[in-house]
Amino acid sequence: MLIEGKTVELKREYVDDIKKTAAAFANCDGGTVYIGIDDDGSVCGVPDADATLLRVTNALRDAIRPDVMMFVDCRCTDMDGRAVVVVSVQRGTARPYYLRDKGIRPEGVYVRQGSSTVPASDAAILSMIRETSGDSYEAARSINQQLTFEYCSAFFKERGLTLGTQQMQTLHLIGEDGTFTNLAFLLSEQCTHTVKLAVFEGSKKSVFKDRTELSGSLLEQLEAAFIYIDRYNRTRAEFQGLDRLDSRDYPAVAVREALLNAIVHRDYSFSGPTLISIFDDRIEFVSIGGLVKGMSLDDIMLGVSALRNQNLANIFYRLRLIEAYGTGILKINESYSDSAVKPSIEATSNAFKIILPNLNYAKENGNKTEEARRPLTSSAKKEKRVEAVVSLCEKNGFVVRKDIEQTLRISQATAILLLREMVADGLLTKKGAAKNLRYYLTNL
Question: Global pTM?
Answer without folding.
Answer: 0.59
